[in-house]
Amino acid sequence: MDLARAEALKKALRQSAAAARDSVPSELRSSLSEAVCDSVLRDVLEPLRAERGSKLTVCLYGAFRSEANPSRLADRCREDGHLVLATRVTGDGQGMELRRLDGPGSWGTGRWGVPEPDPARTELYPIEEAVDLILVPGLAFDEFGGRLGYGGGFYDRLYDVRRKNARSAESTIWIGFAFGAQLSKERLPKEDHDLPLDGLATENGIRWYDRRRRNG
Fold first, then answer.
1. 85 and which of 59, 89, 173, 214 could share a cystine (Cβ 3.0–4.6 Å)?
2. Longest dimension (CA), the chain
3. Per the annotation, does 19 bind a ligand?
4. 155 is in an annotated binding site
């Protein structure tokens, strides 16, 4: 498939995926988001803490539009003593950085109206420092580890930068965070530079793609 046709296919897939996610009734999104958070707490964070024997560093994102919202997970992680981070688009608009979240007052509004850590009220987390878990939003996910994002490539570049620069980068678990309605029955287009997910969290539990990371 040539580049033009591939891009046209992705555009059509993004439109249909956004419609599928938007079809989740707004009154259900909160309860479903809490169920996704419970899946991560039960099936990822609790086993990971038992395995690594220490408090964890967890990175999430600010939910935008009809995305599954991980904010309850941030609250629970802080209660359990974990370090909580969130992603923010860098000032030049080309990449992403991680910043510490100390509470609800850490948030501001970033590019395109997306909730992000306010740089005036949050501390930059060094790129070389380890992170145990990073939650990844998206429009659609498939059963093979594929993810359809918004087309900006921000999480793909974040993965590449951390893979090259962060300590213990190979031990970081990258998990898609979504509603079950976002799971595609068809294989999504995937390129060599795309972020390789370790698993997908939905209200139905965790779907693991890479057993090696799950089992250490």
1. 59
2. 50
3. no
4. yes
